[in-house]
């Protein structure tokens, strides 16, 4: 997907002149494939929970895995992405499913929430 967790930084080696950082002599802030896949797996699992019940999603109760929490930029991206999807799904639901009576007609209002599109960082 467009959101592959590219913010997770890894420092490789000391960067001393001539020695070349890392095993392959490259300086790259992109995490290895396994790290990107791990982030994607966590995002996919959390998004599935949100899709099942967007009204139950509570950012305050979100358990952020350690490998994400230790990187402030990645944690902010993680939280923004989940909150954005939850907001979009909540806005797309009819008013009747937001606690109104079963016989009430949807008002057509989105509850004052604008739909946001996910933007890759």
From TrEMBL:
Acidic residues compositional bias, start-end: 1-12
Protein's organism: Alexandrium catenella
Region of interest (Disordered), ranges: 1-39, 90-121
Protein origin, superkingdom: Eukaryota
Compositionally skewed regions (Low complexity) per UniProt: 97-114
Name of the protein in question: Uncharacterized protein
Compositionally biased region (Basic residues): 23-37
């Amino acid at each position: 997907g467009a959101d592959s967790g590219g913010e997770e930084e890894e420092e490789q080696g000391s960067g001393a002149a001539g020695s070349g950082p890392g095993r392959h002599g490259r300086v790259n802030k992109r995490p290895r494939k396994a790290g990107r896949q791990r982030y994607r797996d966590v995002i996919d699992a959390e998004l599935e929970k949100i899709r099942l019940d967007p009204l139950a999603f509570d950012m305050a109760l979100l358990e952020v895995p350690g490998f994400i929490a230790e990187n402030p930029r990645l944690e902010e991206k993680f939280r923004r992405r989940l909150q954005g999807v939850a907001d979009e799904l909540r806005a797309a639901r009819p008013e009747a499913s937001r606690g109104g009576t079963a016989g009430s007609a949807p008002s057509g209002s989105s509850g004052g929430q604008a739909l946001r599109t996910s933007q890759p960082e």
